[in-house]
Amino acid sequence: MEKTIENMTRKEFEQLPHRKWDQKIICNALIILPSEISWVEITKYKLQLWLSKRFKFIKEPEIYNVTGMHDSGYRQMDFVAVGEDNKPICLLAGGSDVMHFNGIGGYGYDWLEKYGTVPSLLPPVDWNIDCLPTSGLLRLFSHNKILCGIALSSFEFFAIDEKR
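and the corresponding structure tokens:
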């Protein structure tokens, strides 16, 4: 049976190759892949944090020392780009803790060049989420193609016209 996102496991998604951090990808959908964290590491972190509040000689721990956690205190996410016929393309941005629909601010890709200023009216985009049957992961999709920005602390992606 040919692998499509509907019959893949989380482990199979995790084994996909990563793109280069600055490579832009155009895809049809995104799979949200939250990091898995060690409950032992997070428990040790919380215990050390609690102790550091009570005893000045105990150093406050750094959250980024917990595997899978962003320094914001939220879990990191990776994303799988999905191409034609629901076939996975690659992993996108393993260190992100935030998803920015249509970019930071929501103005869309290349908004300054398109509008010359912050736009007062934006064309609507139909963002949709469903849950994959085998892995239980969430799939984000739109009627537009999706342009995935570079891999940074926050993950920007944009709905784009298929003509672009």
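(Above: one complete record from the training split.) The longest strand covers residues 138-148.
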